[in-house]
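Incident log, support desk, overnight shift.

02:14 A customer reports that sequence design results differ from what the structure should imply. Their input is reproduced verbatim below. On-call engineer (initials T.W.) acknowledged and began investigating.
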């Protein structure tokens, strides 16, 4: 779906027909209508009358009550939101809930008089307007919000370039969500490749490695994961050259398991049902690259995406098989359902061999255990570099994507030792998200700052500031902001 437009119109005397139009009015502290609000006098009188009512006053005493229960004048028409705590307490989460009311609705009119969180408000509305209905034969009869108009007075200052950045971001977020929302019979590895090839239209160089290339290079772990499936495995490389020539890129590595049945270590029915989203890491990488290209980010980025399907079958990888990684280590695969770390191991090593990156991020719906640890609220972050990690955490905080750092400790990797090979891929259930991270750590050179994001809990079916249901695109906003702030 295409993101809808956010427009800003200047108006002296706002005279919306409040009987017919939906609109949102933000009012300042003390329920006073700010003189800055560009309202026509009779409309102002109507609203003043309403906010002087007792019921409104009582509710308005408590900001949080107000935010949880926005005042609706006339159920369908007018929503009044106080702004003070939004600005001062950064309660964008609540704000996102309010904006949700308008998800998928007609055009929205907003009368705006406060400049502070303007672009972030615009962003929330834009990202919240996403609807996934391309697979419904009967489309939503309501018009999707084609545009949101902010009516502002003549003195109002805002940054047009920030709004354009929001548009670029929304394109990447919506791409990511579409990819995650498609089921595996539609978005198989071939279809995913096709979608990624389209990114050349925004200036991204797209290179495809097919199974022959993958074998020739020696990415045997990745190949082993996909060999039980009829759908061919692929590695897709996305290059964005926005920075200086010769400066090493930031690598973004993504887990793109288009369906994770578990392989011969088959998952249970309930554990398998949503496993078409096991490519969310790859979708985040695609989304970030698209947004960065559209915003003309002045950095060199390389996305490295592994597309495989993890299936049982006569050619499938067996529990106990020993496979030689691209790095050269021999890996004993004791559980074929711990497949993400296998393909990521090869992709991480490949990214360092081929692109000499300054930094590496990887995104993966890697472990169910991260959902046990952090629920569906926080993504897990692991890093070998405190400075890099702290920079990233501060960006996530500002961007309103929740993330929590977990430790990496050599003790955990001891559990991965194998009697017959160099390493196994699993080691019991204790601390298993950390063990997975330690497995990956084996494929990252010590001197390269690296962040691993386990997004198994936050990628789908959880509410965030920016999304209500389905795919969230968790990570695209933070990465986009990271590239604006840090090089
Ligand atoms: N794709 C799953 C992790 C997952 C679980 C993602 C739930 C999203 C929601 C991953 O490949 C997996 O199966 N991990 C196993 C590892 C175990 C065998 C060590 C897990 O978490 O159970
Ligand atoms: Zn798995
Ligand atoms: Zn998986």
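02:41 Re-run completed on a clean worker. Output:
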């Amino acid at each position: 779906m295409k993101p809808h437009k956010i427009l800003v119109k200047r108006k002296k005397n706002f005279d919306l027909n409040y009987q017919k139009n939906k609109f949102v009015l933000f009012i300042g502290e003390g329920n006073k209508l700010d003189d800055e609000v560009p309202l026509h006098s009779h409309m102002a009188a109507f609203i003043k009358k309403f906010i002087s009512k007792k019921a409104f006053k009582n509710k308005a005493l408590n900001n949080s009550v107000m935010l949880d229960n926005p005042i609706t004048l006339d159920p369908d028409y007018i929503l009044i939101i106080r702004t003070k705590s939004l600005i001062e307490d950064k309660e964008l989460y609540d704000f996102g809930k309010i904006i949700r009311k308008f998800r998928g609705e007609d055009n929205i009119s907003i009368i705006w008089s406060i400049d502070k969180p303007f672009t972030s408000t615009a962003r929330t509305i834009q990202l919240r307007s996403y609807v996934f209905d391309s697979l419904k034969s009967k489309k939503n009869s309501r018009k999707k919000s084609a545009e949101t108009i902010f009516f502002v007075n003549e003195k109002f200052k805002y940054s047009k370039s920030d709004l354009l950045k929001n548009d670029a971001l929304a394109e990447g977020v919506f791409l990511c969500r579409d990819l995650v929302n498609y089921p595996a019979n539609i978005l198989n590895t071939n279809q995913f490749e096709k979608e990624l090839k389209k990114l050349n239209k925004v200036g991204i160089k797209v290179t495809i490695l097919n199974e022959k290339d993958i074998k020739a290079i020696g990415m045997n772990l990745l190949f082993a994961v996909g060999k039980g499936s009829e759908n061919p495995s692929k590695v897709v490389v996305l290059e964005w050259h926005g920075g200086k020539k010769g400066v090493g890129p930031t690598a973004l590595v993504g887990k793109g398991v288009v369906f994770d049945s578990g392989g011969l270590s088959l998952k249970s029915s309930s554990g398998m049902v949503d496993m078409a989203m096991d490519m969310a890491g790859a979708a985040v990488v695609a989304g970030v690259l698209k947004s960065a290209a559209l915003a003309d980010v002045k950095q060199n980025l390389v996305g490295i995406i592994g597309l495989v399907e993890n299936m049982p079958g006569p050619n499938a990888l067996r529990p106990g098989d020993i496979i030689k990684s691209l790095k050269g280590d021999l890996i004993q695969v004791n559980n074929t359902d711990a497949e993400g770390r296998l393909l990521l191991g090869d992709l991480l090593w490949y990214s360092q061999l081929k692109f000499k990156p300054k930094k590496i991020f990887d995104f993966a719906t890697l472990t169910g255990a991260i959902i046990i640890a952090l629920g569906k609220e926080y993504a897990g972050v692991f890093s070998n570099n405190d400075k890099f990690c702290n920079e990233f955490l501060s960006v996530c905080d500002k961007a309103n994507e929740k993330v929590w750092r977990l430790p990496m400790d050599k003790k955990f990797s001891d559990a991965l030792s194998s009697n017959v090979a160099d390493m196994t891929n699993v080691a019991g259930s204790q601390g298993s998200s950390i063990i997975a991270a330690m497995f990956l750590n084996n494929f990252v050179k010590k001197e390269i700052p690296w962040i691993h994001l386990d997004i198994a809990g936050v990628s789908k079916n959880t509410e965030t500031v920016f999304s209500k249901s389905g795919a969230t695109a968790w990570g695209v906003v933070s990465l986009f902001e990271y590239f604006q702030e840090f090089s």
